[in-house]
Amino acid sequence: MEKNKLIDKNILKKLIEESDNIVFFGGAGVSTASNIPDFRSPTGLYNEKSEFNYPPEYLLSHSFFVENPRAFTKYYKTKLIYKDAKPNACHFSLTKLEKMGKLKAIITQNIDSLHQKAGSKNVIEIHGNLRDYYCISCGKTYSEDEILKTDDLNICECGGIIRPDIVLYEEGLDMDKFSKAINYISNCDLFIVGGTSLAVYPAAGLLRYYNGNKLVILNMEKTPMDELADFIYYGDISKIMEDII
Q: What EC class does the entry list (predicted)?
């Protein structure tokens, strides 16, 4: 990596001040300051032992949902839902940038809805969310409050199984959302990518649609996409965003 890619918060602040067409793309690291564990760190979900004796990739797969919907439901309700989580400084900073007219879109891999809880309006959730639920048989929709009345499997009035509107392993992304994300990225001036390992495809491939020369990666550690960045900052994204916005 070229040393001149590394920047301090003053350069990042200047880049933001000079741009009125910013797009932000974030991952699990955006929500760790809200006490939601990430996935791939040593203390993350993917390295946590569980009673199910399967890797999280399988527990959150379409196959496991079909084969054992009750165990799947128990897993996502106990491991993915954090009812008491509140937006942190990064979420609120992005909301402020949106209200200023600078930030045009937030593209997130997260399913926790914290961007919306912070007040952001244009949020593209490429992996879905845990607010919305639907019956796989009749398509009837349900709210989070309805679903969390029980820890057990939720059954629709038609007898079908109710599942969260999230993208599981082995399932394809919503291409309308993905195309929308590509459009924002390819037309933005400043592209900020933060709190993501950039190890999950096709989401990580979104960086290649950026056409400008102000791609900033903010992360706690190096990513496989650092070579594409024009600017890099290593550190806590909630702290850096709070400092500069």
A: transferase
The CATH number of the structural domain formed by 1-36+87-127+173-245 is 3.40.50.1220
Tokens, residue 17: 């001040």
For range 151-171, the mean pLDDT? 97
179 labelled as ligand-binding? Answer: no
Comparing 55 with 111, which gets the higher pLDDT? 111
Active-site residue 127, yes or no? yes
**231's tokens:** 């600017």
Return the bridge partners of 164, or none: 133
Point out the catalytic residue in the list 62, 91, 115, 127.
Answer: 127
* 237 annotated as ligand-binding: yes
What contacts 11, CB < 8 A, 6 or more positions away?
231
Closest C-alpha among 222, 231, 225 to residue 206: 225
| pTM for this prediction | 0.92
**Comparing C-alpha atoms, which of 84, 80, 98 is closest to residue 38?**
80
Residue 126 assigned to a binding site: no
